[in-house]
From TrEMBL:
Listed Pfam families: GCV_H
Protein name: Protein Abitram
Domain of life: Eukaryota
GO biological process: dendrite morphogenesis; regulation of actin filament polymerization; regulation of filopodium assembly
Length: 181
């Protein structure tokens, strides 16, 4: 006898991202229209910085020429060496700390920011060799960086970020205000 409810058998299970992470957004980063970032916050307070699905790199079908974690002459995110339980050696980043610069084939350059305060645990070196991961799998293998907020700040770090519903409201207002071509 088959006891499987067929109505649920065909329904897709939620992805790992949807099941274990809360999505937070930062719209129009540093006043630049549509340069939206997404922060995936795990229940263990780890935060993964990704491009929001509305970012021009993902929306406009751009080709990525290069990704550079060298922020300035004295600061490279690739030199971030973390060790031990207390995450010694991790670079501390603030809300507007640049993580990397992405240059597209048309020479358009985008700076990706941390959006939250915390210790930079790792940057995704895989996207240096395979930049298309950023476009093809932005929420998984194409992430930018992983940040661990201070324990006492883990609840307050999201107060400047938008929920998915708030972000969708911002995006829908954008599409209303932009004239159709």
């Amino acid at each position: 006898m088959d006891c499987v409810d067929q109505s649920n058998a065909n329904a897709e299970a939620p992805s790992v991202i949807d099941r274990y992470y809360t999505r937070w957004y930062r719209a129009d980063m540093k006043g630049k229209a549509c340069e939206d970032h997404c922060i995936l916050q795990h229940s263990n307070r780890l935060c993964v910085v990704t491009l929001a699905e509305t970012h021009p790199i993902l929306q406009e079908g751009r080709t990525i020429k290069s990704i550079n974690y060298q922020i300035s002459n004295g600061c490279s995110r690739l030199k971030n060496k973390v060790s031990g339980k207390s995450k010694r050696g991790a670079q501390f980043v603030t809300d507007f700390a640049p993580l990397c610069r992405i240059t597209c084939s048309d020479e358009t350059e985008y700076t990706i920011y941390s959006c939250i305060r915390g210790r930079l645990l790792e940057v995704n070196e895989n996207i240096l060799e395979t930049p298309n991961l950023l476009i093809e799998k932005p929420s998984t293998e194409g992430y930018i960086a992983v940040i661990l907020p201070k324990f006492e700040e883990s609840k307050s770090i999201t107060e400047h970020l938008l929920t998915r519903e708030e972000f969708e409201g911002v995006v829908s207002k954008r599409s209303v205000s932009q004239p159709s071509s």
